[in-house]
Amino acid sequence: MTGEFERLATAIIACRKCPRLVRYRERVARVKKREFAAWEYWGKPLPGFGDPNAELLILGLAPAAHGGNRTGRMFTGDSSGQWLMRALYRAGFASRPTSEHRDDGLQLRNAFITATVRCAPPDNKPTPREIANCSGYLRQELALLRRARVVVTLGQIAFATYLRIAQEHHVTLPHPRPRFKHGEVYRLHATSPIPSLVIASYHPSRQNTQTGRLTEAMLDRVFREARRLLRQDGTGG
């Protein structure tokens, strides 16, 4: 990655803004899960990863306690990451369909993955204050991702957070105000260089995938639509 991304990653990794999240992520890293007892957990905040020239941005919720918090890379080492990476691979945005550890050779193609909150939260539920504390890092990533044009928001919290940041950038939202609905595409009236095409998607959490609320076919359609929008609006392909 470029020096700007590396400097931002260093700042994110060193962050200790949220005492509750610091305590939780570090306790999980010490206690561990039995099946991962041999692992040295990452136990720190996670920066985004992927192609710094990406046209597609994928915004998730937060690292999983025994996924990203263990492996040191978002959507890596847990079932959500496997679901997401299979879909990205089938759509041509990832070099392989698995995401196991941060040195597994996975490369994202024209895509960048980040999260609303950078530390694993208890019960996967960050507080509004914790989301606000992390929002500055997302704003900085948006400023660096100068070619990004489409954003896929995974879950309602990511969707709401992105719309809030868009408004801070003086983006005009459609009327009526966009509401979260899986597969829905919203075009924002952007005058600033942040992605103006937003696709809402259910998060590939076990709560959604094991209940059938989200199927692989549904997730595939989201990324096929992202690919179509990139081709329609520019050179992405």
Can you give keywords for this protein?
237 residues; alpha/beta; Uracil-DNA Glycosylase, subunit E; globular
Number of domain units:
1
Q: Provide the CATH architecture.
A: 3-Layer(aba) Sandwich
Number of strands: 6
Helicity range of the residues? 25-40%
Instruction: Order the strands across the largest sheet as they lie in space.
Output: 1-3-2-4-6-5
Question: How many helices in DSSP terms?
Answer: 8
Mean pLDDT rating: 95
CATH class: Alpha Beta
What is the H/E order? Answer: HHEEHHEHEHEEHH
Q: Find the CATH topology.
A: Uracil-DNA Glycosylase, subunit E
Describe the structure.
By secondary structure, the chain is an alpha/beta fold. The chain has a single domain (3-233), classed as Uracil-DNA glycosylase-like domain (Uracil-DNA Glycosylase, subunit E). The chain contains 8 helices and 6 strands. It has a 6-stranded mixed sheet with strand order 1-3-2-4-6-5, with helices on both faces. Helix 4 crosses helix 8 (216-233). The radius of gyration is 17 Å and the shape is globular. The two termini are 22 Å apart.
